Known about the structure:
2 copies of one chain form a homodimer.
Chain A: E1 2-4, H1 6-12, H2 15-31, E2 34-35, E3 40-44, E4 47-56, E5 60-67, H3 71-74, E6 79-86, E7 93-98, H4 99-118, E8 125-129, H5 133-145, E9 150-154, H6 158-171, E10 176-179, H7 183-189, E11 192-195, H8 208-211, E12 215-218, H9 233-236, E13 240-242, H10 247-250, H11 252-260, E14 268-270, H12 271-276, E15 286-289, H13 294-311, E16 315-316
Parallel strand pairs in A: 1-7, 8-9, 8-11, 9-10, 11-12, 12-15, 13-14, 13-15
Antiparallel strand pairs in A: 1-16, 2-4, 3-4, 4-5, 5-6, 6-7
Amino acid sequence: MIYINEENIREIVRLEELMEAIEEAYIAYENNSFIMPDRIHINNKSNTLLYMPCITEKVFGTKMITVFPDNKNLNEPVIQGVMMLNDSVTGTPVCMINGASLTAYRTGAVGGVGLKYITPKHIKSIGVIGAGVQGYYQALYACKVRNIETINIFDLSLQSAQILKTKLQESIDNIVINISKSSSELLENSEAVYTCTTTNKPVLPDDKSLLENKYFIGIGSYKPDMREFPEKLFEVVEEVYVDTAFAKEETGDLITPLSKGWLKESQIKSISTIIKDKKQITKKTMLFKSVGMALFDIYTANAIYKKALEKGVGTKIKL
Amino acid sequence: MIYINEENIREIVRLEELMEAIEEAYIAYENNSFIMPDRIHINNKSNTLLYMPCITEKVFGTKMITVFPDNKNLNEPVIQGVMMLNDSVTGTPVCMINGASLTAYRTGAVGGVGLKYITPKHIKSIGVIGAGVQGYYQALYACKVRNIETINIFDLSLQSAQILKTKLQESIDNIVINISKSSSELLENSEAVYTCTTTNKPVLPDDKSLLENKYFIGIGSYKPDMREFPEKLFEVVEEVYVDTAFAKEETGDLITPLSKGWLKESQIKSISTIIKDKKQITKKTMLFKSVGMALFDIYTANAIYKKALEKGVGTKIKL
């Protein structure tokens, strides 16, 4: 077995390859060629253990994640864990990957693939609301998908925005990075906008004139009480694309609009159909919402594992 | 994080220490100081994935096991997997242990602790029915608990019995090892008998005169359709001790006798009470049945992990 940590991933993997893995996962999703049981949650006080198994024809495995909110105060990551891959013929564990790093890379790749399918090729500016881990990864992938010249950042914490700016400047060449004073200012200057927060109050201005003719990628809200998109957004979009059918039961960004009647279920479409058919969405105002699924993890993990084998990278472990 | 394989365990661990860990697990069980969700099963054709999480005050973790029956034909172990231990304050993975090895050691330790509490100190002979992995481990532990001079082995495959004999001779000094021609012959020559098969037809002779005044430790049957103990055994035992309350729902060795009326539920007792009170069971015919539980895994794994840290053993992994 080999163990692959974040450093290893960074060393060997091209972001384009992980986006290809995500597109393959979408095609497997469309073809229904997988077993993906519901996520298993175990709660202990404020802490959560999550098990996300997934079985495909070629590979199976499990992402095991711990969510310990108090880690913030201990200067430790809130989300930790490992992704285990098993040989599909014998079940033998063949690979483990740092679970937080895998999640960061695959979520970035899902956003990147979203951008590819919902925006025209010529866009040159993106905005990132929420300067956390995903703020960084979404921007990184966006620059591989489109010729981005400007990144706008907005975060309630100016310090976080500044840290992200520095980090992105170190990672991406020839890029202008601005810190916006408000989400309205960010929206004015960005063609496509990523929301990467866990807020329960919409982070975008509830202003039709600002929201129109923009491309939105919702990454943050993954629980019923979380919501990033404002009411008026649903007046300017005709359709909402989602990564998985169960998104409408998981995120407040769909649950609330559906229950308030701002959005009809018939307006929610699966992006996997578009990807399988190699189409492009060409609406002028567009919304893609991702909540993630174990199928993405398994395809991304397998791509990383294969690359690690090829490059001879990772810590070798005698079982 | 460190990874601990079978070689590492063999190098550093004394069997007595793992039996102490099992006794501590029993006390935690009695004190109800743990969270142990039901085992999670995922089936894919004939293969099974099992997740066994357990949370205690000091430590938590998960044993993840794959059961691939066709591995027999591929000369690969049917059961494989890993046990993961996490830091109880932060959730950080701190240790992984070969899951099959851990299971082998802990199941042996559970049998050893059973022997300690249900047999008098003077017994000198044991019998082992079923010459698989547990045939080996049960005998190994028995020799640490009592001054065993003779081990009798019975298996339907003479070759398996011979392989186990050789293996035990290499592992235990000053021991006489006989291969019995039948389970009746084994029973005649053994004071305590371990059953370590996955049969659905009782492996012991249905003969009261042979069964009386013997000590039985049931290790093998862990499913409703598996049964090692014959009907007459329930005429000669007054009480059946179990490792966990849910044993009566899991093994055919209790389900069948209960449903046929050979055994009353009031006759089933938890060995943990005896262990907590540091008592000894003194009946002349005695039956202990184990089905195992995640609490045993977590206590055994933690004992192995601590020892590995102390001895500086295991593969170091940068998360």
